[in-house]
Design goal:
Elements lengths: L1 H18 L32 E5 L10 E3 L11 E3 L4 E4 L2 E4 L1 E3 L8 E8 L6 E8 L6 E9 L14 E8 L5 E7 L8 E4 L9 E7 L3 E6 L2 E7 L12 E8 L5 H4 L9 E8 L17 E8 L10 E3 L11 E3 L4 E4 L2 E4 L1 E3 L8 E8 L2 E2 L2 E8 L6 E9 L14 E8 L5 E7 L8 E4 L9 E7 L3 E6 L2 E7 L12 E8 L5 H4 L9 E13 L4
Parallel strand pairs: 3-7, 20-24
Antiparallel strand pairs: 1-17, 2-7, 4-5, 5-17, 6-7, 7-16, 8-13, 8-17, 9-10, 9-16, 10-11, 11-12, 13-14, 14-15, 18-35, 19-24, 21-22, 22-35, 23-24, 24-34, 25-35, 26-31, 26-35, 27-28, 27-34, 28-29, 29-30, 31-32, 32-33
Length: 522
C-alpha cells in the first residue's frame, strides 16, 4: 500500500510540474511511474519492423542536426538533474549520456544528459540500439513526447502525449513500457527480459498506430495495448528523446538511492519509419520539410526546438587550430557564448572551439545577427551561411561550396570583413571600417542575399554591395547559418595575429532570417 501511495504522489507531482513547463524552461521527459506489474496479458503483431536509420552514432553526433543535446533546463519534479550539453558525449561509435555533480551551480544536485530530435514524429515504427546504465537511482530511456510547451499549427498547446521505454538502474533484467494520453499515465507494464540489459547492446522499440502500440525487444513483439473508447492512445506527434537521470529523495522508493558514478546510458543508433515534421507547417498548409523564416533569441538559453545547435566532434582542418566541442557553446546573461579552451593534447588541433549552426539550410533572403566579437588577437568571430560537398542536395548530388561571410578579426575589431565563395572560389574579401569598436557592445550585422546581388548591412544600414555578372557569379545554394569562434594555426598568424589562450568569447543575442529553411533529408 505504501508503494501505491508513493506512486500516486509521484504522478501528482509530475502533473503539477508539467503545468509549469515552457519551451525554454522545464519540459517533460520520460517520467516516473507506479510499481511495475505483470498483470496485463501481452499480445502482439508479428510484422517485422520497417524503420529507416534516423541517426547513426558510429561517427559521432548526427551531422544534419536531426539529434542534438538538450542544454540549459530541468524537468523539475523528481528529476534531480539539470540537462547539460556536455553530459552528451560520443566515443567508440556510441552516444553516451552521463550524470555529473552540479556542485551547487543549479538547484538540482546533478547535471544529466539528454538527446532529442528537432522534428516531430507520429505513427510508425521506432527502434533504438542501446545499453542502459546499471547505476541504482537512475533511469535510462528512449521515448516520444510532446506537451503544452509545444504550440501547434492551430496556435494551441499540444496535449502531453508520450510513449516510453524505461530502464531502472536498480534492476536491468527488465524494462518498463508506459504511455501518456493528454497527461494521463498509469499504464506501466514491466517486461522480464531474461537477460541483463546493461551487459551488452540490444534493440528495443515500438510500433505506434492509431489503434495499437506494440513494444519490441530484439525484433520480437512482446507487449501490445489496443485502443478503445475507454482506453485512448497517444495521437500527437512528438520529439524522439533519450535521457539518463537520477531522482530526488522522493523517488528513492521507485528508483533506489543514487550514488555518483561514471556510469552512462549508451546508444548506437536510432531508427524510425515515421516522417519527421516541423511543428508548424508551411504557408500552403503542407508539411514539406520547410520552415518559413527563422527568429532565434538566446535570451532564455538554447533554442528549445533544435533549430540552432552546437557543433561537436570534428575540425575544419586547414588553418583552423580548433576542434569543435559542444561545451565551448554556453548560455548566460541572455546570450550565446562561443569560447576557446586548451585541448591539452587530446586532439591534433591545439584548442577546442565553439560553433553553433542551424539544422536546416537557407537560401535567398535577409539575414541578421546581434553580436559582439572577441577582441583576442589570433581569433575570428563569425556569422555566415555555408554548404559544401559534405551536404547531399535534394537531387542526390553533393552541394557546391557556397558561402557568404561576416568575419571579425580579434586583432582589429574596429572593422569587419565581408567575403563569399562560389563553388569553392573565394578571394572576394572587403574590409569595412566600422567607426566604432565592435567588441565593446552589441551591434546588428547582416546581409541581403538575392539572385543578382549581395548587400551587407551594419545596424540596418547598407554598407557594401556586390552584383552578379557573367564574370562574377554569386552563391546560389542554400546553406546552414553558422556562428563560430576559432584561432588559427601558425600559418595564419600573418592574417590573424598570434593567439594566446584567454577566456574571451564571441557573444550573440539573436539571429534572424526571412529565408525558407529546407531539410536536405526531406
Amino acid at each position: 500500500m505504501k508503494k501505491k501511495i508513493l506512486a500516486m504522489l509521484l504522478a501528482l507531482t509530475m502533473a503539477a510540474a508539467l503545468a509549469a513547463c515552457s519551451p525554454a524552461a522545464n519540459q517533460p521527459s520520460s517520467t516516473p511511474s507506479s510499481d511495475p506489474t505483470s498483470n496485463p496479458t501481452p499480445g502482439a503483431s508479428s510484422a517485422p519492423f520497417e524503420a529507416a536509420m534516423l541517426a547513426d552514432f558510429a561517427n559521432g553526433p548526427a551531422a544534419d542536426g536531426s539529434v542534438f543535446a538538450s542544454d540549459g533546463w530541468s524537468n523539475g519534479s523528481v528529476f534531480n538533474v539539470w540537462w547539460k550539453g556536455d553530459m552528451v558525449t560520443y566515443s567508440d561509435g556510441q552516444l553516451h549520456l552521463g550524470i555529473s555533480d552540479a556542485n551547487g551551480e543549479v538547484e538540482q544536485g546533478y547535471y544529466g544528459g539528454e538527446a532529442r530530435t528537432g522534428l516531430y514524429y507520429g505513427y510508425g515504427d521506432y527502434i533504438v540500439k542501446m545499453k542502459p546504465s546499471k547505476a541504482e537511482g537512475t533511469a535510462s530511456t528512449f521515448f516520444t513526447c510532446t506537451g503544452p510547451y509545444d504550440i501547434n499549427a492551430e496556435g494551441n498547446p499540444n496535449p502531453w502525449d508520450e510513449i516510453d521505454i524505461e530502464f531502472l538502474g536498480k534492476d536491468t533484467t527488465g524494462v518498463q513500457f508506459n504511455y501518456f494520453v493528454d497527461g494521463q499515465g498509469g499504464h506501466e507494464y514491466w517486461y522480464d527480459l531474461g537477460f541483463d540489459a546493461s551487459e551488452e547492446f540490444h534493440e528495443y522499440g515500438f510500433r505506434w498506430s492509431e489503434d495499437a502500440i506494440t513494444w519490441y525487444v530484439d525484433g520480437e513483439a512482446v507487449y501490445t495495448v489496443n485502443a478503445s473508447a475507454d482506453n485512448p492512445l497517444p495521437s500527437a506527434p512528438g520529439r524522439i528523446l533519450m535521457n539518463h537521470w537520477c531522482g530526488t529523495p522522493d523517488a528513492e522508493g521507485w528508483m533506489g538511492k543514487y550514488e555518483l558514478s561514471d556510469a552512462t546510458a549508451d546508444y548506437q543508433w536510432v531508427k524510425t519509419s515515421a516522417t519527421g515534421r516541423e511543428l508548424v507547417p508551411s504557408e500552403d498548409g503542407e508539411q514539406d520539410g520547410t520552415m518559413d523564416g527563422l527568429d532565434v533569441s538566446f535570451a532564455n538559453g538554447a533554442a528549445a526546438d533544435g533549430s540552432v545547435f552546437a557543433s561537436d566532434g570534428w575540425s575544419n582542418g586547414s588553418v583552423f587550430n580548433v576542434w569543435w566541442k559542444g561545451d565551448m557553446v554556453t548560455y548566460s546573461d541572455g546570450q550565446l557564448h562561443l569560447g576557446i579552451s586548451d585541448a591539452n593534447g587530446e586532439v591534433e588541433q591545439g584548442y577546442y572551439g565553439g560553433e553553433a549552426r542551424t539544422a536546416q539550410h537557407y537560401g535567398y533572403g535577409e539575414y541578421s545577427v546581434s553580436m559582439k566579437p572577441s577582441k583576442a588577437e589570433g581569433t575570428a568571430s563569425t556569422f555566415f551561411t555555408c554548404t559544401g560537398n559534405y551536404d547531399i542536395g535534394l537531387d542526390g548530388n553533393p552541394n557546391p561550396w557556397d558561402e557568404i561571410d561576416i568575419e571579425f578579426l580579434g586583432k582589429d575589431t574596429t572593422g569587419v570583413q565581408f567575403n563569399y565563395f562560389v563553388d569553392g572560389q573565394g578571394g572576394h574579401e572587403y574590409w569595412y571600417d566600422l567607426g566604432f569598436d565592435a567588441s565593446e557592445e552589441f551591434h546588428e550585422y547582416g546581409f541581403r542575399w538575392a539572385e543578382d546581388s549581395i548587400t551587407w548591412t551594419v545596424d540596418g544600414k547598407d554598407v557594401y554591395t556586390v552584383e552578379a555578372s557573367e564574370e562574377t557569379p554569386l552563391p546560389s545554394t542554400p546553406g546552414r547559418i553558422l556562428m563560430n569562434y576559432w584561432c588559427g594555426t601558425p600559418d595564419a598568424e600573418g592574417w590573424m595575429g598570434k593567439y594566446e589562450l584567454s577566456d574571451a568569447t564571441a557573444d550573440y543575442q539573436w539571429i534572424k532570417t526571412t529565408a525558407t529553411g529546407v531539410s536536405l533529408g526531406g
